[in-house]
Protein backbone atom coordinates (compact mmCIF):
# COMPACT_ATOMS: atom_id res chain seq x y z
CA UNK A 1 0.00 0.00 0.00
CA UNK A 2 1.43 3.36 -1.04
CA UNK A 3 1.30 6.07 1.63
CA UNK A 4 0.84 9.78 0.91
CA UNK A 5 0.88 12.66 3.41
CA UNK A 6 -1.30 15.77 3.48
CA UNK A 7 -0.19 19.07 1.91
CA UNK A 8 -0.72 22.69 2.91
CA UNK A 9 -2.19 25.15 0.39
CA UNK A 10 0.65 27.52 1.28
CA UNK A 11 3.12 24.93 0.04
CA UNK A 12 1.15 23.64 -2.95
CA UNK A 13 1.17 26.99 -4.74
CA UNK A 14 4.96 26.64 -5.03
CA UNK A 15 4.93 23.06 -6.39
CA UNK A 16 6.31 22.27 -9.82
CA UNK A 17 4.23 20.23 -12.27
CA UNK A 18 6.22 17.13 -11.33
CA UNK A 19 5.63 17.66 -7.60
CA UNK A 20 1.89 18.24 -8.11
CA UNK A 21 1.65 14.94 -9.96
CA UNK A 22 3.66 13.10 -7.30
CA UNK A 23 1.41 14.33 -4.49
CA UNK A 24 -2.07 14.22 -6.04
CA UNK A 25 -2.15 12.06 -9.19
CA UNK A 26 -2.63 8.28 -8.94
CA UNK A 27 -1.39 6.39 -11.99
CA UNK A 28 -0.99 2.73 -12.87
CA UNK A 29 -4.43 1.76 -11.67
CA UNK A 30 -6.06 -1.54 -12.67
CA UNK A 31 -2.97 -3.78 -13.03
CA UNK A 32 -4.05 -7.28 -14.07
CA UNK A 33 -4.50 -9.81 -11.23
CA UNK A 34 -3.50 -7.26 -8.58
CA UNK A 35 -5.03 -5.08 -5.91
CA UNK A 36 -3.50 -1.59 -5.90
CA UNK A 37 -4.08 0.72 -2.91
CA UNK A 38 -3.05 4.29 -2.05
CA UNK A 39 -3.51 5.48 1.55
CA UNK A 40 -3.80 9.26 1.91
CA UNK A 41 -3.45 11.09 5.22
CA UNK A 42 -6.16 13.47 3.91
CA UNK A 43 -9.14 12.20 5.91
CA UNK A 44 -7.47 8.73 5.89
CA UNK A 45 -9.07 7.73 2.59
CA UNK A 46 -7.82 4.66 0.76
CA UNK A 47 -8.22 4.75 -3.02
CA UNK A 48 -7.53 1.65 -5.06
CA UNK A 49 -8.50 -1.01 -7.54
CA UNK A 50 -8.94 -4.75 -7.86
CA UNK A 51 -8.58 -6.23 -11.35
CA UNK A 52 -9.04 -10.01 -11.29
CA UNK A 53 -8.29 -11.70 -14.61
CA UNK A 54 -6.93 -15.23 -14.18
CA UNK A 55 -7.43 -15.52 -10.44
CA UNK A 56 -9.55 -14.46 -7.49
CA UNK A 57 -8.13 -11.54 -5.48
CA UNK A 58 -8.36 -11.39 -1.68
CA UNK A 59 -8.52 -8.02 0.10
CA UNK A 60 -6.16 -8.03 3.10
CA UNK A 61 -5.18 -5.36 5.60
CA UNK A 62 -1.44 -5.46 5.03
CA UNK A 63 1.00 -4.09 7.58
CA UNK A 64 0.03 -0.45 6.97
CA UNK A 65 -3.42 -0.64 8.63
CA UNK A 66 -2.27 -2.41 11.80
CA UNK A 67 -5.56 -4.31 11.68
CA UNK A 68 -6.56 -7.97 11.73
CA UNK A 69 -8.51 -7.51 8.47
CA UNK A 70 -9.15 -4.65 6.05
CA UNK A 71 -12.58 -3.58 7.31
CA UNK A 72 -11.95 -4.05 11.01
CA UNK A 73 -12.24 -0.27 11.46
CA UNK A 74 -13.24 0.79 7.95
CA UNK A 75 -16.05 0.83 5.37
CA UNK A 76 -15.70 0.26 1.62
CA UNK A 77 -17.37 1.54 -1.54
CA UNK A 78 -16.89 -0.26 -4.87
CA UNK A 79 -17.93 0.58 -8.45
CA UNK A 80 -17.20 -1.79 -11.34
CA UNK A 81 -16.14 -0.02 -14.58
CA UNK A 82 -15.15 -3.20 -16.45
CA UNK A 83 -16.84 -6.44 -17.43
CA UNK A 84 -19.13 -8.49 -15.21
CA UNK A 85 -17.62 -9.60 -11.92
CA UNK A 86 -18.31 -11.14 -8.53
CA UNK A 87 -17.59 -9.88 -5.04
CA UNK A 88 -17.76 -12.37 -2.19
CA UNK A 89 -18.31 -10.94 1.30
CA UNK A 90 -18.10 -13.41 4.19
CA UNK A 91 -19.34 -16.24 1.99
CA UNK A 92 -22.16 -14.38 0.20
CA UNK A 93 -21.59 -13.93 -3.53
CA UNK A 94 -22.75 -10.74 -5.25
CA UNK A 95 -22.93 -10.55 -9.06
CA UNK A 96 -21.70 -7.07 -9.96
CA UNK A 97 -22.25 -5.97 -13.56
CA UNK A 98 -20.56 -3.04 -15.25
CA UNK A 99 -21.51 0.34 -13.69
CA UNK A 100 -22.95 -1.42 -10.63
CA UNK A 101 -21.49 -0.91 -7.16
CA UNK A 102 -21.38 -2.13 -3.59
CA UNK A 103 -21.22 -0.74 -0.09
CA UNK A 104 -19.45 -3.12 2.30
CA UNK A 105 -19.84 -2.36 5.97
CA UNK A 106 -17.33 -2.34 8.81
CA UNK A 107 -16.68 -5.78 10.30
CA UNK A 108 -16.83 -7.70 7.02
CA UNK A 109 -13.83 -10.04 7.19
CA UNK A 110 -13.41 -12.06 4.02
CA UNK A 111 -13.70 -10.05 0.80
CA UNK A 112 -12.66 -11.29 -2.62
CA UNK A 113 -13.00 -10.18 -6.23
CA UNK A 114 -13.23 -12.22 -9.44
CA UNK A 115 -14.24 -11.79 -13.09
CA UNK A 116 -16.95 -13.70 -14.92
CA UNK A 117 -14.96 -13.63 -18.18
CA UNK A 118 -11.16 -13.30 -18.21
CA UNK A 119 -11.42 -11.94 -21.75
CA UNK A 120 -13.48 -9.01 -20.44
CA UNK A 121 -12.34 -8.66 -16.83
CA UNK A 122 -14.08 -6.68 -14.12
CA UNK A 123 -12.37 -3.48 -13.00
CA UNK A 124 -13.35 -2.73 -9.41
CA UNK A 125 -12.65 0.81 -8.22
CA UNK A 126 -12.41 1.15 -4.43
CA UNK A 127 -12.81 3.97 -1.90
CA UNK A 128 -12.47 3.20 1.82
CA UNK A 129 -12.89 5.42 4.88
CA UNK A 130 -12.54 4.96 8.64
CA UNK A 131 -15.83 3.84 10.21
CA UNK A 132 -17.38 3.98 13.69
CA UNK A 133 -20.34 1.64 13.27
CA UNK A 134 -21.60 -1.09 10.95
CA UNK A 135 -24.11 -0.40 8.18
CA UNK A 136 -25.59 -3.13 5.95
CA UNK A 137 -23.60 -4.48 3.03
CA UNK A 138 -25.58 -4.00 -0.20
CA UNK A 139 -25.29 -4.39 -3.96
CA UNK A 140 -26.15 -1.13 -5.74
CA UNK A 141 -27.89 -1.30 -9.14
CA UNK A 142 -28.90 1.52 -11.47
CA UNK A 143 -32.07 -0.30 -12.61
CA UNK A 144 -34.14 -3.25 -11.41
CA UNK A 145 -36.24 -4.38 -8.46
CA UNK A 146 -35.11 -4.01 -4.83
CA UNK A 147 -34.58 -7.24 -2.92
CA UNK A 148 -32.69 -8.48 0.11
CA UNK A 149 -29.18 -7.07 -0.04
CA UNK A 150 -29.87 -5.09 -3.24
CA UNK A 151 -30.54 -1.34 -3.50
CA UNK A 152 -31.78 0.36 -6.69
CA UNK A 153 -30.59 3.93 -7.24
CA UNK A 154 -33.56 6.26 -6.77
CA UNK A 155 -34.78 8.43 -9.63
CA UNK A 156 -34.08 11.58 -7.59
CA UNK A 157 -30.44 10.48 -7.32
CA UNK A 158 -30.05 10.47 -11.11
CA UNK A 159 -29.66 14.17 -11.83
CA UNK A 160 -29.23 15.80 -15.25
CA UNK A 161 -27.40 19.14 -15.14
CA UNK A 162 -25.80 21.71 -17.41
CA UNK A 163 -26.29 22.31 -21.11
CA UNK A 164 -24.51 21.78 -24.41
CA UNK A 165 -24.27 25.55 -24.81
CA UNK A 166 -22.16 25.67 -21.63
CA UNK A 167 -20.24 22.49 -22.60
CA UNK A 168 -21.26 20.79 -19.34
CA UNK A 169 -24.34 18.68 -20.12
CA UNK A 170 -23.95 15.75 -17.72
CA UNK A 171 -25.79 13.12 -15.68
CA UNK A 172 -24.89 12.61 -12.02
CA UNK A 173 -25.71 9.19 -10.58
CA UNK A 174 -25.41 9.00 -6.78
CA UNK A 175 -24.60 5.53 -5.41
CA UNK A 176 -23.72 5.91 -1.70
CA UNK A 177 -25.37 8.72 0.25
CA UNK A 178 -27.79 9.16 3.18
CA UNK A 179 -31.35 8.05 2.46
CA UNK A 180 -30.31 5.46 -0.11
CA UNK A 181 -27.21 3.59 1.09
CA UNK A 182 -26.19 4.47 4.63
CA UNK A 183 -22.52 4.86 5.53
CA UNK A 184 -20.42 6.39 8.28
CA UNK A 185 -18.82 9.07 6.12
CA UNK A 186 -18.27 7.76 2.58
CA UNK A 187 -20.30 9.33 -0.26
CA UNK A 188 -19.78 8.01 -3.79
CA UNK A 189 -21.18 8.37 -7.29
CA UNK A 190 -20.55 8.63 -11.02
CA UNK A 191 -20.92 11.50 -13.50
CA UNK A 192 -21.13 10.98 -17.28
CA UNK A 193 -20.74 13.81 -19.74
CA UNK A 194 -22.91 13.93 -22.85
CA UNK A 195 -21.19 13.94 -26.27
CA UNK A 196 -20.03 17.46 -27.08
CA UNK A 197 -19.65 18.45 -23.41
CA UNK A 198 -16.28 18.52 -21.65
CA UNK A 199 -16.60 20.55 -18.42
CA UNK A 200 -17.43 18.94 -15.09
CA UNK A 201 -18.25 20.70 -11.81
CA UNK A 202 -18.29 24.17 -13.30
CA UNK A 203 -18.99 26.63 -11.75
CA UNK A 204 -16.65 25.01 -9.26
CA UNK A 205 -16.71 24.92 -5.48
CA UNK A 206 -14.88 23.78 -2.37
CA UNK A 207 -16.19 21.92 0.67
CA UNK A 208 -14.13 22.35 3.83
CA UNK A 209 -15.92 19.53 5.61
CA UNK A 210 -14.86 16.74 3.25
CA UNK A 211 -12.21 15.86 0.70
CA UNK A 212 -12.73 14.17 -2.65
CA UNK A 213 -11.08 11.81 -5.13
CA UNK A 214 -11.88 11.79 -8.87
CA UNK A 215 -11.29 8.78 -11.14
CA UNK A 216 -11.42 9.71 -14.84
CA UNK A 217 -12.19 7.04 -17.44
CA UNK A 218 -13.96 6.28 -20.74
CA UNK A 219 -11.17 8.19 -22.51
CA UNK A 220 -9.28 6.97 -25.61
CA UNK A 221 -5.51 6.69 -25.38
CA UNK A 222 -4.82 10.05 -27.06
CA UNK A 223 -7.35 12.00 -24.97
CA UNK A 224 -6.91 13.71 -21.61
CA UNK A 225 -8.64 15.77 -18.94
CA UNK A 226 -7.15 18.99 -17.65
CA UNK A 227 -7.96 18.71 -13.93
CA UNK A 228 -7.93 22.00 -12.03
CA UNK A 229 -7.10 22.18 -8.34
CA UNK A 230 -5.80 24.63 -5.75
CA UNK A 231 -7.36 27.55 -3.94
CA UNK A 232 -9.77 29.57 -6.11
CA UNK A 233 -7.24 32.39 -6.43
CA UNK A 234 -4.21 30.06 -6.77
CA UNK A 235 -5.34 27.46 -9.29
CA UNK A 236 -3.08 24.74 -10.70
CA UNK A 237 -3.64 22.03 -13.30
CA UNK A 238 -2.82 18.33 -13.70
CA UNK A 239 -3.05 16.51 -17.03
CA UNK A 240 -4.97 13.26 -16.36
CA UNK A 241 -5.19 10.30 -18.76
CA UNK A 242 -7.66 7.42 -18.95
CA UNK A 243 -8.20 5.48 -15.69
CA UNK A 244 -6.12 7.83 -13.56
CA UNK A 245 -7.30 9.44 -10.31
CA UNK A 246 -6.69 12.74 -8.54
CA UNK A 247 -6.74 13.36 -4.78
CA UNK A 248 -8.42 16.67 -3.93
CA UNK A 249 -7.94 18.24 -0.45
CA UNK A 250 -10.92 19.95 1.16
CA UNK A 251 -9.43 23.44 0.57
CA UNK A 252 -9.07 22.81 -3.17
CA UNK A 253 -11.41 23.25 -6.10
CA UNK A 254 -11.89 20.09 -8.19
CA UNK A 255 -12.96 20.67 -11.73
CA UNK A 256 -11.90 19.45 -15.13
CA UNK A 257 -12.19 19.97 -18.87
CA UNK A 258 -11.47 17.15 -21.30
CA UNK A 259 -10.35 16.98 -24.90
CA UNK A 260 -13.60 15.03 -25.39
CA UNK A 261 -16.49 13.71 -23.28
CA UNK A 262 -15.63 11.27 -20.47
CA UNK A 263 -16.93 9.72 -17.25
CA UNK A 264 -15.65 10.12 -13.70
CA UNK A 265 -16.30 8.59 -10.29
CA UNK A 266 -16.28 10.91 -7.31
CA UNK A 267 -15.74 9.71 -3.76
CA UNK A 268 -16.02 11.99 -0.73
CA UNK A 269 -14.86 11.40 2.83
CA UNK A 270 -15.16 13.72 5.83
CA UNK A 271 -17.39 14.80 8.68
CA UNK A 272 -20.33 15.98 6.57
CA UNK A 273 -22.32 13.83 4.11
CA UNK A 274 -24.62 16.63 2.89
CA UNK A 275 -24.09 16.57 -0.88
CA UNK A 276 -25.15 20.22 -1.24
CA UNK A 277 -22.92 21.54 1.56
CA UNK A 278 -20.40 23.36 -0.61
CA UNK A 279 -18.94 26.82 -0.96
CA UNK A 280 -19.50 28.03 -4.51
CA UNK A 281 -16.87 29.96 -6.42
CA UNK A 282 -18.03 32.62 -8.87
CA UNK A 283 -16.61 32.33 -12.38
CA UNK A 284 -15.29 35.88 -12.05
CA UNK A 285 -13.29 34.98 -8.91
CA UNK A 286 -11.12 32.22 -10.39
CA UNK A 287 -7.48 33.02 -10.92
TrEMBL record:
NCBIfam families: PRK00924.1 (NF002091)
Gene: kduI
Catalysis: reaction(s): 5-dehydro-4-deoxy-D-glucuronate = 3-deoxy-D-glycero-2,5-hexodiulosonate
Positions with a binding annotation for Zn(2+): 205, 207, 212, 254
Cofactor binding remark: Binds 1 zinc ion per subunit.
UniProt record similarity statement: Belongs to the KduI family.
Protein purpose: Catalyzes the isomerization of 5-dehydro-4-deoxy-D-glucuronate to 3-deoxy-D-glycero-2,5-hexodiulosonate.
Cofactor: Zn(2+)
Top-tier EC class: isomerase
Gene Ontology MF annotations: 4-deoxy-L-threo-5-hexosulose-uronate ketol-isomerase activity; zinc ion binding
GO BP: any one term: D-galacturonate catabolic process
The keyword Metal-binding is assigned to this record: yes
Record lineage: Bacteria, Bacillati, Bacillota, Clostridia, Lachnospirales
Keywords associated with the record: Isomerase, Metal-binding, Zinc
Enzyme Commission numbers on file: 5.3.1.17
Pfam families: KduI
Name under which the protein is recorded: 4-deoxy-L-threo-5-hexosulose-uronate ketol-isomerase
Pathway in which this enzyme or protein is active: Glycan metabolism; pectin degradation; 2-dehydro-3-deoxy-D-gluconate from pectin: step 4/5
